[in-house]
Amino acid sequence: MITLKKVLLFNLIIAILIILYIHSNKYFYISNDQVIEQVEQLNKFNLEESVSSKNPTIVRHFINNIDINSLDIENLEIQNKKVKDLIKSPTLQVLLFNPLQLNNKINIDLYNLFNKNLKLISSPLSLSLFNNNYINFTKNQTKTRILQLFYDRTYIHILSGKVKCYLFHPIQIPNLYLKKQKNRYMSLINTNKPDMEKFPKYKDSEVIEIILRKNTLLYIPNYWCFYIESLEDSVFMFYNSDTVISKIINLF
Length: 252
Description:
Elements: H1 4-28, E1 37-39, H2 44-53, E2 57-59, H3 68-71, E3 77-78, E4 81-82, H4 83-88, E5 94-97, H5 106-121, E6 132-138, E7 147-149, E8 153-160, E9 162-168, E10 178-181, E11 184-187, E12 208-213, E13 217-220, E14 225-230, E15 234-241, H6 244-249
Parallel strand pairs: 1-2
Antiparallel strand pairs: 2-13, 3-4, 5-6, 6-15, 7-11, 7-14, 8-13, 8-15, 9-12, 9-14, 10-11
């Protein structure tokens, strides 16, 4: 005999399967357009509309509740070393750390501020347990390696300075010589001095260049590759969020 409890359980399972199907389709979807969308003022509706198109999106005036000067990040400590001293090191080009690494009571306030932003821009299905926030201090004329990330959503938020972001549509992947490292792929190419003899396909890659300034937010769809060049000493934030579904997908 079919009871009400069994009917409700069956309907719940069907609903979960439908959500899984829709979300996984969105996760794997790659737009054929090689365009950059722009949003002047961010709200949840226009953000979700841009994200669903799976095109990189620039938010020109992202509401910034993080005051770099008042938080005095440079005087905070990471593993008993002051950030400002680490930055001054002549051998250091990029300093990347999670706010939870800070050895200072302000780290709780700082982390809460970052999470407040992340709640605004992450998927309704994302879980804070899977969020990964990173602060980047980069020196002028520094270039990162080419990366491909697989989070459900990835954003770059410029807190100070100015950077140029180089974006590669997924169809360019064969030209980028990527190698898997944990939950990301990193190119073997040195972006400062590309070795065209060793990586001949790289010269055939097509790239989109974007200038990002303070208070600008950039959404990078999964499967897109990118690297960043600092046009002056800069501080920017990576917001990375995952859902249970995207986390499971990335295990394989």
